[in-house]
């Protein structure tokens, strides 16, 4: 879960157990989990000055971004990620919603997320969202009642055939 942070976060095995308990309970947000990570770091490391506190905060933010990539696709995690990105510019959060959680979004919400994400992160890193945006725009123009996921699957099949 947090293998990338073994050198940065002391006693990471204990932290992983705490985080898993929070993830398993729908009442906890990603902000709550970020707080648990930050508290764990501050309890196990000496934070002497503002730079140490800033580094602990940054490590907690990066750890949550890493966790976002591993979250199961379900309504609870959709709500967690959606709330989290309303406070933080998390590329991982935007990307998971746009690519993996689109079944929970209507077409206009998905389009808004894509446009907002492109403005925040730039067109280079969000290039893979363009086909999704084109599909959504086409569906909105056609005013079809078709699930986006079906259209996206069709797009992927067409790409394989080319």
Question: Which properties best describe this structure?
Answer:
single chain, 2 domains, 162 residues, 8 helices, mainly alpha
Tell me what you see in this structure:
By secondary structure, the chain is mainly alpha-helical. The protein folds into 2 domains: 1-70, no CATH class; 89-162, no CATH class. Helices cover 69% and strands 0% of the residues. The protein has 8 helices and no strands. Helix 2 (30-44) crosses helix 3, helix 3 (50-70) runs parallel beside helix 5 and helix 4 (75-85) crosses helix 5 (91-99). The longest helix is centred in the middle third of the chain and has 21 residues, at 50-70.
Write the layout of secondary structure elements.
Blueprint: H1 12-24, H2 30-44, H3 50-70, H4 75-85, H5 91-99, H6 107-121, H7 130-142, H8 148-161
Helix pairs in contact: 1-2, 2-3, 3-5, 4-5, 5-6, 6-7, 7-8
Report helical residue fraction. 55-70%
Mean pLDDT: 89
- How many beta-strand runs? 0
Bin the strand percentage.
under 5%
Estimated structural class = mainly alpha
Overall, the morphology is elongated
Low-confidence blocks of residues? none
**Helix segment tally:** 8
Give the distance, in angstroms, between the N- and C-terminal Cα atoms.
37 Å
Largest sheet: none
Radius of gyration: 18 Å
List the helices and strands in order: HHHHHHHH
Count of discrete domains: 2
């Amino acid at each position: 879960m947090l293998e990338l942070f073994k050198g940065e976060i002391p006693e990471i095995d204990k932290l992983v157990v705490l985080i898993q308990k929070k993830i398993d309970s729908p009442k906890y947000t990603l902000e709550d989990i970020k707080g648990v990570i930050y508290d764990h770091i501050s309890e196990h490391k000496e934070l002497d000055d503002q730079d140490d506190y800033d580094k602990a905060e940054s490590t907690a933010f990066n750890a949550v971004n890493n966790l976002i990539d591993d979250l199961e696709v379900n309504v609870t995690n959709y709500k967690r990620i959606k709330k989290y990105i309303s406070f933080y510019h998390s590329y991982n959060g935007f990307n998971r919603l746009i690519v993996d959680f689109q079944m929970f979004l209507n077409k206009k919400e998905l389009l808004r997320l894509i446009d907002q994400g492109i403005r925040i992160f730039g067109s280079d890193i969000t290039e893979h969202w363009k086909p999704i945006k084109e599909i959504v725009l086409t569906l909105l123009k056609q005013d079809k009642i078709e699930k986006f996921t079906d259209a996206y699957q069709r797009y992927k099949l067409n790409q394989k055939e080319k």
